Amino acid sequence: MLVGQRLGLPWLARPVATFVARYPQAECDLYPGDLTVNALMAWRDLAAFAPEATYSMLACDFEWLRRQAREDEATDSILKLAVQALNDAANA
């Protein structure tokens, strides 16, 4: 929740990025991969405080997320927003 709201990132950026890299489909509160989705959408903010951990996270295989986003019928789903953030990070 804090990552999605961009709160506490000076303290949370490194452990969150490291956790997501190790357990990308972990369910923290809502659905499998919910922390990953929020971390990807906040990747620029995470990178400001923990660049190495964030870029290691971004280098992970997120094909499962891309697949789920393609299967999601909603055009503005949070999964699609996370994939867009992942694509933005690849192009940065």
What does this structure look like?
The chain is built from six helices and no strands. It has one domain (9-91). With 92 residues, it is an all-alpha fold. It is globular, with a radius of gyration of 12 Å. The mean pLDDT is 91. α2 packs across α6 (78-91) and α3 runs antiparallel to α4.
Summarize the structure.
The chain is mainly alpha-helical and 92 residues long. Helix content is 65%, strand content 0%.
Features:
6 helices; 65% helix; 92 residues; globular; mainly alpha
Determine the structural class based on helices, strands and strand pairing. Answer: mainly alpha
| Strand fraction | under 5%
On the 0-100 scale, what is the average pLDDT? 91
What are the secondary-structure elements, in order, as H or E?
A: HHHHHH
Rg calculated over all Cα atoms: 12 Å
Largest sheet: none
